[in-house]
Model the fold of this input.
Amino acid sequence: MMDRRELLLAGSVALAATSAARNALAQGTATAPSAAMAKLKIDTYSRHLLWLRSADEVAKAVLEMGYDGIDLCVRPGNTGHIEPDRVTTDLAPFVKILRDNGVRVQAITCPITDADSPNAEKILEAASKLDIHHYWWGTFRYDQVKPVMAQLDALKPRIDKLAKLNAKYGMKAMYHNYSGAGTVGSAIWDLLEVLRNFDPRYVSFHFDTGHAANAGGNNTWALNMRAAGPYVGGLSIKDSLLEPDPTEGQPRARLSGTPIGGSPGEAAGGPRGGPPPASAGPAWPWRVRFTPLGRGNNNLPLLAEVLHQIQFVGPVEIQSEYPNGGADAGRDAITLPRAEVLGNMRKDLETLKAAWVGTGLI
Done:
């Protein structure tokens, strides 16, 4: 039998363990996985294949590179494969051809900022009918001369309305985080403070590892991802590094995106659906240069570790945003041979798989 001292010690240990478990649950982490994670499938991003217009061509390229599927852009003009105002007629046949060729479609990227964005309900209804339940959502930006917390509070009614629309169609909105002080969500904690008021089944992050590494250097992004936990709905993997900026001292472009106080339904994202450009402000002698995966500041082994900790199960895509004949920037024509463009994107996938060998993720 235990004496009184041993009994008190055992009780303290049990109490501490229970407290730790509760804290882990509140943060979206677990002290130990309750079951083996399902293997992750890796998608490519259709923005890099806009120079291919038919579903058959897109499917052939995806399979040639070795990806499992594609995040399909439902965006206007030459920024997407499906026009948002034709989503009810054009999405289903495009997706059917992809799937008939063995390419999965689990997520779409579309210009939805909130429930009042043009075609928002049509897009969500059409996607849901095809068993597509994840979509890219955003982007908001700060008015940098106004108090931050009040601006975040102003987002809550808009997110509440979007969450209710998502619940209606069984959709999960994934907010894509960018780096830079002007964008909501660049710090993760700011938007997380808002999202915690809502169900992560309906609103979440599309966690961009490249932007997160730039916004939170020295692996601070890993802390942010662990904090976000169940609110990490999808994963966007890209790589980059900081380098001296040869344009230092020249005027900066103003930030694009949707201001928090702007009109509901304003278009989201930067030019051609890419990241918003740097905000106007004092000159800074550094710039971000996107690189092939494995050549920048992305810590892929640590990423695998954190994904296990938060028991991540959402869609994963690789975004190849380094110079690649215009495919990187979503151009409708490429300036490099097709085999070279697709070969570069295939190498990104091979790099990820090599880094994750033995992790149980793939």
Summary: Residues 36-355 form a domain with the TIM Barrel fold (CATH 3.20.20.150). DSSP finds ten helices and twelve strands in the chain. The first helix runs from residue 4 to 26. The CA atoms of residues 138 and 278 lie 17 Å apart.
